[in-house]
Amino acid sequence: MNKNDQTLIGCIVIICLLFIVTLNHSDHNVAVVYYKNEIIKKIDLSLDDIKEYQVNGENGIVTLEVNRGRIRVKDENSPLHLCSKQGYISKSTESIVCLPNKIVIQIEQNNDIDTVVK
What we know:
single chain; mini-chromosome maintenance (MCM) complex, domain 2; 4-stranded antiparallel sheet; 3-stranded antiparallel sheet
């Protein structure tokens, strides 16, 4: 392997790393919380600290937790607590659906392309 081969491999590695960092970087993510198909809250996910929000659901208060660009249902009043067992979401392709409380949480991203139709 000569010096030109090493330079080429180094450039390819740097380009791949930049590509990976660019894909993982998300611009201004916002969680949109719906209650009975109406927007009741928009939560900025770009904050690094842990924050909690409370919204009213069909069965009472639903506590949401935001942590490092992710959101989850921390506590709610439903028979089997399935909403809080769903865990964190952070991508626009994921959502939390809490049917007993009629709450839906979706992520909106500025740079995310869902579909392209020609």
